[in-house]
TrEMBL record:
<protein>
    <submittedName>
        <fullName>OLC1v1003654C1</fullName>
    </submittedName>
</protein>
<dbReference type="InterPro" id="IPR039845">
    <property type="entry name" value="FAM192A"/>
</dbReference>
<dbReference type="InterPro" id="IPR019331">
    <property type="entry name" value="FAM192A/Fyv6_N"/>
</dbReference>
<dbReference type="GO" id="GO:0005634">
    <property type="term" value="C:nucleus"/>
</dbReference>
<feature type="region of interest" description="Disordered">
    <location>
        <begin position="21"/>
        <end position="53"/>
    </location>
</feature>
<feature type="domain" description="FAM192A/Fyv6 N-terminal">
    <location>
        <begin position="25"/>
        <end position="109"/>
    </location>
</feature>
<keyword id="KW-0539">Nucleus</keyword>
<feature type="region of interest" description="Disordered">
    <location>
        <begin position="118"/>
        <end position="140"/>
    </location>
</feature>
<dbReference type="Pfam" id="PF10187">
    <property type="entry name" value="FAM192A_Fyv6_N"/>
</dbReference>
<feature type="compositionally biased region" description="Basic and acidic residues">
    <location>
        <begin position="24"/>
        <end position="53"/>
    </location>
</feature>
Amino acid sequence: MADEGSIDDTSAPPIRLMNFVSEHQLEESRKSRGSRVDDGTAQRDRSLFEILKENKDKKDAEFNERFKHRPPKALDEDETEFLDNLEMSRKEYEQQVANEEAQELQRFQAAVAAQAQSTVVSEPKEIPPVPKVQVDLNSR
């Protein structure tokens, strides 16, 4: 007699790792599910870049739709301090540039004035015209 705990080998079918699939069955399954890109049965009609870009655009649109009606976040103390310092440094830089331009302009004007004084040639004085004397021929 066989032990009650043992398994009878003849009653259970053997385990098969792979089932045989005929070409006809394969064609039928392809028709029913359609050709898919991921299993290599169909060619891609678009490039991978286009597919990924489309997926990214969909995700971005979904994200923007979810958060577009949300009010902007208030600035905290560190952010306001940073922005104040940034504005102050920008104003200081603009003031420094304006001062440098003013100094350069003054130097240029002084150089032009010095050059004008050194190259001034005394202009000849205008000689007044000699008055013409009209002689009256009838008076003689």
